[in-house]
Amino acid sequence: MVERTRIRSDIAWSTPDRIVVRGRELTTDIIGTVDLGGMAFLTLTGRLPDADEARLFNAIAVTLVEHGITPSVIAARMTYMGAPEAMQAAVGAGLAGLGSVFVGSIEGVARYVQEGLAAKGEHTIAEVAAAIVSEHRAAKRPVPGIGHNQHKGGDPRVPRLFQIARECGLAASEIALVEEVAAAAEKATGRSLPINATGAIGAIAAGLGIPWKAARGIGVMARAIGLVGHLLEEAGNPIAYEIWQRAEDEAGAHLRPKD
Amino acid sequence: MVERTRIRSDIAWSTPDRIVVRGRELTTDIIGTVDLGGMAFLTLTGRLPDADEARLFNAIAVTLVEHGITPSVIAARMTYMGAPEAMQAAVGAGLAGLGSVFVGSIEGVARYVQEGLAAKGEHTIAEVAAAIVSEHRAAKRPVPGIGHNQHKGGDPRVPRLFQIARECGLAASEIALVEEVAAAAEKATGRSLPINATGAIGAIAAGLGIPWKAARGIGVMARAIGLVGHLLEEAGNPIAYEIWQRAEDEAGAHLRPKD
Amino acid sequence: MVERTRIRSDIAWSTPDRIVVRGRELTTDIIGTVDLGGMAFLTLTGRLPDADEARLFNAIAVTLVEHGITPSVIAARMTYMGAPEAMQAAVGAGLAGLGSVFVGSIEGVARYVQEGLAAKGEHTIAEVAAAIVSEHRAAKRPVPGIGHNQHKGGDPRVPRLFQIARECGLAASEIALVEEVAAAAEKATGRSLPINATGAIGAIAAGLGIPWKAARGIGVMARAIGLVGHLLEEAGNPIAYEIWQRAEDEAGAHLRPKD
Amino acid sequence: MVERTRIRSDIAWSTPDRIVVRGRELTTDIIGTVDLGGMAFLTLTGRLPDADEARLFNAIAVTLVEHGITPSVIAARMTYMGAPEAMQAAVGAGLAGLGSVFVGSIEGVARYVQEGLAAKGEHTIAEVAAAIVSEHRAAKRPVPGIGHNQHKGGDPRVPRLFQIARECGLAASEIALVEEVAAAAEKATGRSLPINATGAIGAIAAGLGIPWKAARGIGVMARAIGLVGHLLEEAGNPIAYEIWQRAEDEAGAHLRPKD
């Protein structure tokens, strides 16, 4: 018999009369005491938030719940149309698309912020920011977290999130760094590159001590909530069928014989 | 050209300078104001909870976040081992198993509670409960929400959740009905069939006005949070590889030639 | 220590110098000898097909590979747009929708065919068919496998599949039963209810000895192949972005302020 | 109204009486004529294989179908245990883990082979191989496709696949390049680094003209077939429950109070 590595997990355990999660008795120290945002924070960081951390974390989490009809939502609704008996799989299908293109960029911001500040040493924030922009430009990679997509005049979520961070006295260095990154990138490119919601959320997540590798998880949790809402709407007021029919008709129109 | 059905969704919309979710301005009426539990409640019911509803909803939601090493967790960790670059797909894989066997039973409880109370008329709660038990027995289907799995002496989560519901003045009829269902089932079978966590959560969800078709969604949202936590642990302290190796070795042992 | 159930799987095993799949040496008895259709048949039935079985099985399998822009394809393409680094997860998301509404009906047909013929006894095929139709009508459930969707004049795949089955000398009783089911349903309803592709495939799968519980698996395998093709096309000639933009614009149009 | 991009797909189209896939009439030119391996090849390359190509493609495809109890299989079986009504979602969950760690390496091999040969110019195969090894070593990335995992004495699939390629007169340059890569890597490291199955399959896929971006798709298709087989076995002879119970017990053992 091969010597085996032990399997261990420190997240939770139970016996017939006790359930303990992250070292806390579920029935007395979590249920009725910790709310869903606190539980999510605990999951991401291993500790419960204080009041300011809870407020700021909830602010970024609720920002991520709902974005209207996204690719992820369309994937979930299409899946639900074919398998309404498996709503959980439709949510799973919707989550699968939260990769590098959308939610992954939060991770990218949190990473350069955490790594940049960790290696700051005697440098100024502006110098760190300039280095981040230079590295991305040298590698011909876009700097995540800046630039506008839909919100040409600046994303309205950004000042609100930064205001709450200030009120909570949190994430000041991280936000300052992203602001300097945006300034440095604008200077380097001559283009308008305001901080977008991804940049604000990535900076705040970093400032809350959420490891950058976990930052994508905030989006995944939040969107799972939003996707459930879309499937409930799809159940009562379906749109997937119509989206499908139009796409199918048009996609093959150039191939079908004309009457 | 075929006349087309209009596509519409009432969940959210945006313009370059505004984002509105469920009729509320995201930046002023949600971010900084609504927490993640409130957002989840809004998603499931279309309205924000009051303080008591928020406390009770958070109580059932956090109960569902974490159950230690479940089949869903193992699926997510196995997926992450093969595709660590796609954490979101590992969460999606984990959610896909939240079907009829586990989380689906919350839905079953919420359904018989909502349908039973809706059709109650002049009958007593005990009569409604007796009818529910009879129907399940006639169809040879187990009554969901009662009976013990691991917690032989009674699930410790149940009295705690019921206590909070009482403190909040919510879900009294729904809880009474599940209690009568358990009593009727014990009488009919002669076996000990205490209310389990699924039964308590299903009754409370029904009492919070969450449609039974949406009840599974509470589990899906909550477990998405828990799964992210397990993947973060897997990244630092992996167990999937060892579980895999042991299973592979043992599963084929009867077929491999002996040395 | 609790006494443990042994884990065993009879599908495959390996040692450092041998790999054995379903009792066959992979390198000498499968690679170069068995083709993908034969391998799929082996997976579904536990045995290799003879030449006629292989031809007929391949006929139904290739029929299921490609249906153009389906809901499943749209889900996969949406997922790929957000996570192009995880093509496998996009295929997985696409498969998740192959539930009761679409591919599940093959299973329904295979089931009533296998159960109907197993219980036939002294009855004629027509009597078995009449009973199947009556049972579905009594339960107010549609009879799967009959009725036209797109192909109003009869699905062109059906006569072709039945022709191949005749040439192969296979599935005669099963096809006869589905034909009688269609006739009985038309008589009972007064509507035109020709056998559709699902009905033909379900009957043939049953006739090939594929257990009805496995019949959905034919569709799942086949569509996995088709989905890979769609993702390759999406990589070069994307359509998901445009489908998304149109849906998002239109879905919220009734809510957005008019300029 | 914004000017819209047209949506088009060239894969398939249908009218009420015709279905055309990749420019071929489904009923007359595919069903009964093309087998599943040919259909998969068509999906990956846009053309049907000749007899040699079909034999070699089928050889690599069937090699990938079945690997016994893999992480992907465990994920699928765990998902099926919780949601047996959604077998397709269990296959989807299993596929989601076919990422960079396992199946992704086929893609890596196909890529360096295709890019290396495309840029070969006047260089010898050995020089191209040396450059590939140098680049990987400079980037501190392992060279995919070489090195032994389980099969210490050399993977038995490799010589068999190469033999078939020779018999078919295909992929000679691609195989030669991988052989030179293995030799160069052994020379550079002083370690035994035989070509593994991934290396053989990646080289052959490249030699069959399958674009490297599509190479992962061969594994995804093939494993979808294998996963269906495992779920059928799980339905009759379940192992997921036992794997779960053992893992749960052991993972929390260090935390549970001793009696």
Commentary on this structure:
- The structure is a homotetramer of 259-residue chains.
- Chain A has 12 helices and 3 strands, in the order βββαααααααααααα.
- By secondary structure, chain A is mainly alpha-helical.
- The first copy, chain A, has a 3-stranded antiparallel sheet with strand order 1-2-3.
- In chain A, helix 3 runs antiparallel to helix 8 (157-168) and helix 6 packs antiparallel against helix 11 (212-236).
- The termini of chain A are far apart.
- The mean pLDDT of chain A is 94.
- Chains in contact: A-B, A-C, A-D, B-C, B-D, C-D.
- At the B-D interface, helix 4, helix 5 and helix 12 of B face helix 4, helix 5 and helix 12 of D.
Write a brief structural summary.
The first copy, chain A, has 12 helices and 3 strands.
In quaternary terms, these chains amount to: homotetramer
- Name the beta content range of chain A: under 5%
Query: Biggest interface, and residues per chain?
Result: A-B, 92 and 94 residues
Q: If helices are DSSP runs of H or I spanning 4 or more residues, what is the number of helices of chain A?
A: 12
Order of strands, widest sheet of chain A? 1-2-3
Which regions of chain A have little confidence, pLDDT < 50, spanning 5+ residues? Answer: none
Mean pLDDT of chain A: 94
| Span of the ends, CA to CA of chain A | 73 Å
User: Whole-number radius of gyration of chain A?
Assistant: 22 Å
Query: What fold name stands as the CATH topology of the domain at 104-213 in chain A?
Result: Cytochrome p450-Terp, domain 2
- How much helix, percentage-wise, in residues of chain A? 55-70%
* The CATH H-level homologous superfamily of the domain at 104-213 in chain A: Cytochrome P450-Terp, domain 2
CATH class of the domain at 104-213 in chain A: Mainly Alpha
Largest sheet of chain A: 3 strands, antiparallel
Instruction: Supply the CATH architecture of the domain at 104-213 in chain A.
Output: Orthogonal Bundle
Structure classification of chain A: mainly alpha
Q: How many DSSP-defined strands of chain A?
A: 3
Output the helix-strand order of chain A: EEEHHHHHHHHHHHH
Q: Which outline of chain A best applies? A: globular
